[in-house]
Design a protein that fits this description.
- With 112 residues, the chain is α+β, with helices and mostly antiparallel strands.
- It has a single domain, classed as Dimeric alpha+beta barrel (Alpha-Beta Plaits, 2-Layer Sandwich), CATH 3.30.70.
- The chain is 25% helix and 38% strand.
- The strands form 2 sheets. It has a 4-stranded antiparallel beta sheet.
Length: 112
Amino acid sequence: MKDFIFVFRQSSYDQSNTSDQEKEALNKKWNDWIGGIAAQGKLKTHGARLEPVGKVLKPGGVVTDGPFVEIRERLGGFIIIAADDLEEATTLAHGCPALDADGSVEIRPVFA
């Protein structure tokens, strides 16, 4: 088994007009999807949901507002899973709720 990271990218999805009931339903989708991976014994690190604000440190000590304000997507969070290979990891990524909101899942092997 190898470790893979799922990096969740979201478009400029605005939740400010989302009702509490809709937020609860979305959280349930995420918990059910991640729970399904955990039930298979493949969840290594639950990871974290990332806030949409931050800073970026660049060479020369340059600090800019971030993260990555120059792109249209933002990083929404990550988890680390175990899979036999990249194909299995990709299969596990299917059903991710980020895909329902025009987001994406970046699937990358983690160096051991």
